[in-house]
Specification:
Largest sheet: 6 strands, mixed
Structural class: alpha/beta
Bound molecules: guanosine-5'-diphosphate
Length: 440
């Protein structure tokens, strides 16, 4: 499970600037999808050797709260959700009474806190930090978020202090999955029918209640077998959690979703045919795309719809979720069971595609054929040259293409290559990432 780190601090101290700096350089996958709702409050930070989820609690609290309510809510959220709190203060403004109040609240709780003084450019660190020792939070990190100063030291400190997790290179993370087990997360906004579907998927014979202890960000992991394949179902709806009535009432949790995505290979995105695509579905789709996971779409509550209604839903999905067009879509009724059995085949196919292994020789041949059919365009009178392609990772497959001037490859050509590889390698249900490397 990934550690969660929360940013807490008064408005304007630079929380969102720090958030953007730490979560920057994210997936190329998200780059050019218009209409995709992205989350600016929760993000994943991937550093060599350690990853974590970052929350900007400032973005979660209500604008109309007065300052002390605002700060109390932020601190409470951070204490509830995070493993480590980054408490941000403003080096220019100096120590403020609210800072002292929040510091006390954080100290009382005993959660690990790292004090960060921002906006310190052009000042001596000893002079700036002197007054903040009074907060009783120990040695501060002195940074300038806008200039990027002190960020590496801050990251080193975070790495030091977050709970021990397997320290593996981010690049290798995708390769640590067990190839003999499909980790399937069932995701969807409240009321789309996740619980009903999960009960169907698991079948009647396995009605076991799971009593795993956990916090609000934990999902239940349920191992099961189907047609000789081992699965772990990641249940964000908490269906099988015993005596947790409140669990069902909980609203959509981004943090839980992010954790589930981290744990899964394949996502089953459940939609409600009676309602079509609403804002929250788009938000969820954005998180899924960003994760690079394989996807199967289950359009639920297909029962009792008129032909015209069915047509409307189908068009609605195509139009609003074009960036998920690599995923196989099933129309099902979890309530009656129709279409549910067919989901497994698509899940297996998506998993196999996500985990695909292709030798460099084969990828290079596909690349050569693609170039022969449609040569890359000229850039400033010179032709972009591609030499060879190799597989750089899985879940999602990353195809690394080496050549000259490759950074000038237009997006349209990149998409052409992506589609060609997808077709040639029969990849279904997974995003495919194309990356270029220029070697001189
Ligand atoms: P938040 O309300 O805590 O999220 O603060 P923001 O990130 O929105 O920053 C508030 C203002 O402070 C913005 O105008 C930022 O450009 C500015 N700011 C953020 N970090 C720094 C910094 O390191 N130095 C300076 N001088 N300004 C900064
Ligand atoms: P969750 O919040 O996503 O776990 O949704 P539930 O599984 O609790 O279902 C929400 C409501 O939708 C319940 O009243 C279900 O009976 C109903 N429901 C679930 N699946 C179907 C279906 O396939 N067709 C119809 N008509 N209703 C369904």
């Amino acid at each position: 499970m990934k550690p969660v780190i929360a940013l807490v601090g008064r408005p304007n101290v630079g929380k969102s600037t720090i958030f953007n700096r730490l979560t920057r350089s994210r997936d190329a996958l998200v780059a050019d999808f218009a209409g995709l709702t992205r989350d600016r409050i929760y993000g994943t930070v991937k550093e060599p050797g350690f990853d974590f989820i970052l929350i900007d609690t400032g973005g979660l609290t209500d604008q109309t709260d007065n300052m002390s309510d605002l700060m109390r809510k932020q601190a409470k959220l951070a204490i509830d959700e995070a493993d480590l709190i980054l408490f941000i203060v403003d080096g220019r403004a100096g120590l403020m009474p609210t800072d002292s109040d929040v510091a006390q609240q954080l100290r009382n709780d005993g959660k690990p806190v790292c004090l960060v003084i921002n906006k310190t450019e052009g000042e001596r660190r000893e002079i700036i930090s002197a007054e903040f020792y009074a907060l009783g939070l120990g040695e501060p990190q002195v940074i300038s978020a806008t200039q990027g100063r002190g960020i590496d030291t801050l990251l080193a400190e975070i790495k030091e202090r977050i709970p021990a997790v397997e320290k593996i290179e981010s690049d290798e993370v995708a390769d640590t999955f067990d190839e003999n087990e499909i980790r399937l997360a069932v995701l969807g906004r409240p009321n789309v029918g996740k619980s009903t579907l999960i009960n169907r998927l698991l079948g009647e014979e396995r009605v076991v209640a799971f009593d795993e202890p956990g916090t609000t960000r934990d999902s239940i992991h349920i191992p099961f077998e189907k047609d000789g394949v081992n699965y772990t179902l990641i249940d964000t709806a908490g269906v099988r959690r015993r005596s947790k009535v409140s669990e069902k009432l909980e609203k959509f949790s981004v943090l839980k979703t992010l954790q589930a995505l981290e744990d899964a290979n394949v996502v089953m995105l459940v939609l409600d045919a009676h309602e079509g695509i609403v804002e929250q579905d788009l938000h969820l789709a954005g998180l899924i795309i960003e994760s690079g996971r394989a996807v199967v779409i289950a359009v639920n509550k297909w029962d009792g719809l008129e032909k015209s209604e069915r047509e409307w839903v189908t068009t609605n999905i195509e139009r609003r979720l074009p960036f998920l067009n690599f995923a196989k879509t099933h129309f099902i009724s979890a309530l009656h069971g129709s279409g549910v059995g067919l989901l497994f085949k698509s899940v297996r196919q998506a998993f196999q595609s996500a985990m695909t292994k292709v030798p460099t020789s084969r990828l290079t041949r596909v690349l050569e054929d693609a170039i022969a059919d449609h040569p890359p365009p000229l850039v400033r009178g010179r032709r972009i040259k591609f030499r060879y392609a190799h597989l750089g990772g899985k879940n999602p497959p990353r195809i690394i293409i080496h050549g000259n001037q490759t950074e000038s490859t237009p997006n349209s050509y990149k998409r052409y290559l992506e589609n060609t590889f997808r077709e040639a390698l029969k990849l279904q249900g997974t995003p495919v990432m194309i990356e270029f490397k220029t070697s001189d």
